[in-house]
Design brief:
heterodimer; A: 204 residues; alpha/beta; Aconitase, domain 4; 7 strands; B: 19 strands; binds iron/sulfur cluster
Amino acid sequence: MDPVKRVRGRALPLDRADVDTDQVIPSSYLKRIGRTGFADGLFAAWRRDASFVANDPRYAGASVLVAGANFGCGSSREHAAWALRDGGFTVIVAPSFADIFRSNALRTGLVPVRLDAALVTRIMRAVEQDPAVEIDVDVEAGRVRVPSLGIDERLDLDDFTRSCLVQGLDEIGLTLRHDADIAAYEARRPAWRPRIAPAGTGRG
Amino acid sequence: MSPTAPRTTLAQKVWERHVVRRAEGEPDLLYVDLHLVHEVTSPQAFDGLRMAHRKVRRPDLTLATMDHNVPTDAAKPDDVAQKQIEALVRNCQEFGVRLYPMGSPDQGIVHVIGPQLGFTQPGMVIVCGDSHTSTHGAFGSIAFGIGTSEVEHVLATQTIPQARPRTMAITVDGALPPEVSAKDVILGIIARIGVGGGQGTIVEYRGSTIRGLSMEGRMTVCNMSIEGGARAGMVAPDDVTFAYLEGRPFAPRGADWERALDDWRSLATDEEAPFDRALRVDARELRPYVTWGTNPGQAQTIDGAVPDPDSLTDGARREAARRALAYQALRPGVPIRDIAVDAVFIGSCTNARIEDLRAAAAVLAGRHVRSGLRALVVPGSGRVKEQAEREGLDRVFRDAGFEWRSAGCSMCLGMNPDVLRPGERCASTSNRNFEGRQGPGGRTHLVSPAVAAATAVKGTFALPSDLR
Ligand code: SF4
């Protein structure tokens, strides 16, 4: 993952709660076996409606998505995070996120920014009126700012998560440093726990 | 237990037993006992391993099947789906992972085959690149869905870093009224807490009603935990759990069985252990539910009517209800029983186990689906299909006018050719009624297997007792 230190950009206002990952990317777009090329699928069904906000040229080039509560509920498909990234987004601002989406986003270098519902609504209204409103997410300093609205809030991410984003850490590499701990755990795991014989041999 | 020992919950006990490493300010590193893999969320993970020259740490704790986009009739998968299926076969061969491919009698929906093979056992940590992994919590395991990057992480390390979630007790007490099933219990719960209500928590389902459910019923309840926003759902293991497991292919045997039982019996939540949140439901207030909207929380009892969005006080929910009714082409005030459907789907990891098929077949025996209506039954696994055929259920379904298919996810998510046409309305035993979930423009109403069967006969939403 590339490091994400600071993102500043214009926003797309998606004023809907409970946006599920089937809407972010419908299942028919999940058949690719690579990690890129999912932009076509982003909000594919909604984009067929000419009045859908993402079709509004005033918001072209937005890198921040502002959305309602419980964003990313439903399916665990990481393709939803990939599609948003492929569609040019690096930040999602919402009052809350579904758990799996949130961890998928972080691993894709997409910053989930949780703010109070009232603040999100204020930003939403401002962006609806003026697409030029900029949102500034300083991951390194742990601040979210909307200068034109005088908003300057703490970024709701713990230090560990922030440092992973800022350094673009390979989480697997991090965990493998604790190989001795894993091996020790394996040594004390109950022997009766189920195991599968190697592929190609009989069951059990 | 000494009076000073902390009282802990089932979820906390299982969690603590899986902590590989704990460090201040970092998520816990948890050991994974079982990693289930399927074709849609794994190819990029295996690629990642390959690029980093890593291997699968514990192929013996990893099990793969294909379910999401396999065809359930004689047709061949389309070219793109075929690529994904072939990638899984290749990846499993290369990394030494056991795969139940199409055509294997053990192939099926990933959440149906784990329990059926006896691989899903109490007190485990189970993950899969699929949100309905919560199903396995019915056995008293912590089971949750993960994304593809996490799949890669588990393949490489057999562990997963996780922040400790909060706990929520959902207690359902009392006898279920007639015609109310496990599916209605969970739909009733989600209607109460909303689709984000369980966010950040592991839910433990408790109470006499839950204890009274079969393992399959408990799986149905836990399956939809994610639809209430919860990270996972659990039921404490008890004699019902042990009886289900005993003798299954991967269940412990002999002295190991006794050791396992001792361990499993120690898992139940201590009396008066504190939960972060709690909800009580009186089972006598539950009725069969039908969703009217485009998320699983937008449900009404079958005796009710489509709600009026204007009656909702919360602005976001009112707006969501308006949009849902527009998408579903429904008017406020229309009785649920007056809504006519074009299709009926009995299947999915929520309701495609043998008891579900029995419940539907009992309604259909000697009856016929309404003419013009498309009806599909897709068993959850090859074994479920075999068993149903032994019991003659396939005949009942076929005679009633249902198509009898092979195992897979099928019309639950519309990745294979089983899709709704735009505008078609479907009574479905699956778990998600999101816009376009069963095919672009399709309209989904979630129901229990018995209601699905009765609806197929009547053509409008109905209970079995409405057919007499
Ligand atoms: S049946 Fe549906 S919900 Fe279950 S695993 Fe398959 S696609 Fe997901």
